[in-house]
Specification:
The structure is a single chain. With about 300 residues, the protein is of the alpha/beta class. It has two domains: about 90 residues, Endonuclease III, domain 1 (Orthogonal Bundle); about 160 residues, Ribonuclease H-like superfamily/Ribonuclease H (Nucleotidyltransferase, domain 5), CATH 3.30.420.10. The protein has nine helices and nine strands. The strands form three sheets. It has a five-stranded mixed sheet with strand order 7-6-5-8-9. Helix 2 crosses helix 3, helix 3 packs across helix 4 and helix 8 packs across helix 9. About 5% of the residues have low confidence.
């Protein structure tokens, strides 16, 4: 080994290699007089790429970084003792082979979406002819000078065709409070032909008080003489109500942006609801194109 010269294209030339007493090839850098550093830090052991020993050393330092340290940090930790030729490429190659990293970085499979429900395409298509309803909250309001606090709830109605919303204040979780909010919507938006809502048992897991929210028999008796058809989603299936759950999220975000942490009364809460309703109904329903040649929807 000592009698042969290295090729001019060898990557070892820039490392000024030398062989120590144990037969290890070390790089001879400019840290000879840095006595505060360890011997391995001053004269790093040169490792060949694509070698099993090198791969095991990389694996050790990669696992010390808990699989999240990244290529540069692993390479920095290795450089305190070893110098791997094309070290970053060697580390990246192992990161692609590491089962734990591959599992952590794997992309989640996308859900194949089913066709939109038939109810969303039925005629007539005027607003709120077919409606979904859901509850949100509670919102705490102050009553009078005694600072007595009461819970108020958001009752949201959304049109299945236009995605417009109507927000009402519900003063309780009983069926009578819901029917008051329902007829408040009917008096201003018109009588819907079909309504979709969660089944009453869907609310049990979140809040025991919501069990009595949708008394199906009482609601059916109240609306049957007006020709309204009510559809209840299956129990324990909140994913069936995505059309109104997304609107609940948007409405609560708008309401909390208006109210913040302020103490409010019922009148101020109603004003915040109407303001949020106007804000949501003014949103664009499609992507707003920047091309002036596109038709304006």
């Amino acid at each position: 080994m000592k009698s042969k010269y290295l090729p001019k294209t060898s990557k070892l030339l820039g490392l000024q290699p030398r062989i120590d007493k144990n037969g290890l090839i070390r790089c001879d850098g400019r840290l000879e007089y840095a006595d505060f550093l360890s011997f391995d830090a001053r004269y790093s052991i040169i490792l060949q790429r694509k070698n099993w020993v090198t791969k095991l050393i990389v694996k050790r330092y990669h696992e010390l970084g808990k699989h999240v340290s990244g290529t540069n940090q692993t390479f920095s930790a290795l450089s305190s003792r070893f110098w791997i030729i094309s070290g970053r490429e060697e580390i990246r190659e192992y990161e692609h082979e590491c089962y734990t990293c591959r599992k952590r970085k794997a992309k989640v499979s996308e859900q194949v979406m089913a066709p939109l429900p038939e109810i969303r395409f039925k005629t007539p298509l005027h607003a709120f002819a077919r409606t979904a309803v859901d509850f949100g909250g509670p919102f705490i309001t102050v009553q009078g000078r005694g600072k007595r606090r009461q819970k108020r709830y958001l009752c949201l109605f959304t049109c299945l065709a236009s995605r417009a919303v109507h927000l009402e204040v519900a003063f309780g979780l009983d069926t009578d409070s819901f029917l008051n909010a329902f007829y408040g919507m009917v008096n201003r938006r018109g009588l819907p032909k079909e309504i979709i809502s969660d089944n009453g048992t869907n609310f049990v897991g979140a809040n025991r008080e919501l069990v009595a929210l949708l008394d199906k028999d009482k609601i059916q008796n109240s609306i049957s003489n007006q020709g309204i058809k009510w559809h209840f989603n299956p129990p324990l299936a909140p994913h069936f109500g995505g059309i109104h759950e997304t609107m609940i999220k948007s409405a609560k975000r708008a309401i909390y942006a208006i109210l913040g942490n302020a103490d409010i009364n019922d009148e101020e809460l109603l004003t915040a609801f109407t303001g949020s309703e106007a804000l949501i109904n003014s949103r664009p329903l499609t992507y707003q194109s920047a091309d002036p040649k596109d038709d304006t929807p």
